[in-house]
Amino acid sequence: MFVRDWMAKHIWTIEEGRNLRDAKDMMMEHKVRRLPVTAGGILVGIITKEDIIAASPSIIDFETTDEIKRHLEQTNVASVMTEDPYTVETDDPIEQAALIMAEKKVGALPVLDSGKLVGIITETDIFRAFVKILGLAADSERLVLEVEMHENAVSTIIDKLKAEGRRILSMFSYDSRAVGKTMIIVRMAKGKK
What we know:
Layout: H1 3-6, E1 14-15, H2 20-30, E2 34-39, E3 42-48, H3 49-55, H4 65-74, E4 82-83, E5 88-89, H5 94-104, E6 108-113, E7 116-122, H6 123-133, E8 140-148, H7 153-163, E9 168-175, E10 181-189
Parallel strand pairs: 1-2, 5-6
Antiparallel strand pairs: 2-3, 3-4, 6-7, 8-10, 9-10
């Protein structure tokens, strides 16, 4: 699975010279939490709903909401955005996007194709992809095995399940807490073939 298969292709962007009120209004109108920021069509940053909240004054700081609105109108998107955001390419594996998001603690990545902004992938898109990869959306059941990992461990499990007439939807593994052991999770279609 690749980023191109899961990214949002229709994206809303905002020019770096616009103000925070414009960004806030755009996010509310289009029900998005982040906007890639462009300068002449080139990606230069990203601004999130949290960035706007952090840059917004409190009602304690100003006496009227009109003063707060004026502050938002006078504050430039470029002064609040994250410059040079982490990005991925359309042909990157979905796991690469997930790894970047987890390591860098970001909720979305602008997607580029030959340097051109073509989409955005969010943590929700990653979750949807992994639900699909793991076969969770199908009518299925889960088998958890702790095994000693050896050269034929996976093929032995597959052969046994095939002999029982089971159809495997997904299989993955991770290190067990027990030394020398591996956890194998198998998702199978319910019932036999």
